[in-house]
Amino acid sequence: MSLVPSLTETLFDLGAGENVIGITDFCIFPPNLNLPRLGGTKNPKIDEIRALAPDVVYMNYEENLRKHADAIAEFARVEVSEPKSVDDVVQLIAHLGEAHERSERAAELIEELERERQSMPKKRFTFACAIWKKPWMWCGGDTYVSNLIECAGGVNVLANEKRYPAIDIQTIEADVVFLPDEPYAFSEEDAAQIPNAIGPFPGHLFTWHGTRTILGLRFLRESLL
To answer: Which of 44, 117, 209, 211 is surrounded by the fewest CB atoms within 10 Å?
Structure first.
């Protein structure tokens, strides 16, 4: 069972979709999944999850809450991921492939990811990536998003900040400001007010770890050429 939308997609990309017996309301990839929807990442329906008797429930440190992990752990094994880098994603894909007897497919996906990473233009540029507007909040240097952009030659101007600091945009000086459309729905108007902005664009390209990392790297390469 997956309570992490990006891992739901990854499991299906691995060919392990038949092992998935329940998903969240936010699992939109692959589209049109006909599986029990068990609430959101922050408010899963614990009783319904228990009734499905899963062997393992996949969760994520940032997306899910500890209290729900503890409750689920009373009746199922819980695996909590927290990738902070593209290398962590490689290890995660390999682990899921092994766990679901899809190691060969995992190797193919990892090879595709590495091809995308190696094809980056790697032109040095400074960047900031916003995740919220009221107040302005940004991806610090210890985040997966920051590491993803660094694969393209980016240097995070907030590299010394942890997690998601709140800093006024007037103090941000960067060659590129990324404006993904989630978790905050940045608009075309927001982008028009920032001369060096890229966005808005689908936020899952930056925030979803797993096989969507491949598409995130590709988006970066195409945006920066």
So the answer is: 117
Omega into 200 within 30° of 0, i.e. cis? yes
CA-CA distance, 185 to 168, in Å (whole number)? 18
With CA atoms as reference, report the closest residue to 176 among 215, 214, 139.
Answer: 139
Indicate the domain borders of the chain: 1-82, 83-225
On the question of a common fold for 1-82 and 83-225, the answer reads: yes
d(Cα 143, Cα 45) in Å, to the nearest integer? 29
Amino acid in position 27: C
3-state secondary structure of 141: coil
In CATH, the architecture of 83-225 is 3-Layer(aba) Sandwich (3.40)
Q: Which of these, 182, 213, 209, 168, lies nearest to 82 by C-alpha position?
A: 209
CATH 3.40.50.1980 fits 1-82, yes or no: yes
| Nearest-10 Cα torsion for 2, 75, 80, 49 | 20
Which amino acid, 34? N
Q: What is the pTM of this model?
A: 0.95
Strand partners, 57: 78
Please state the rounded mean pLDDT for residues 105-116.
98
Whole-angstrom distance, CA of residue 12 vs CA of residue 30? 7
Rounded mean pLDDT of 161-180? Answer: 96
Read off the pLDDT of residues 15-44 as tens digits, 9 standing for 90 and up: 999 999 999 999 999 999 999 999 999 999
Does 197 have pLDDT greater than 80?
yes
CA gap 13, 170 in Å, rounded: 41
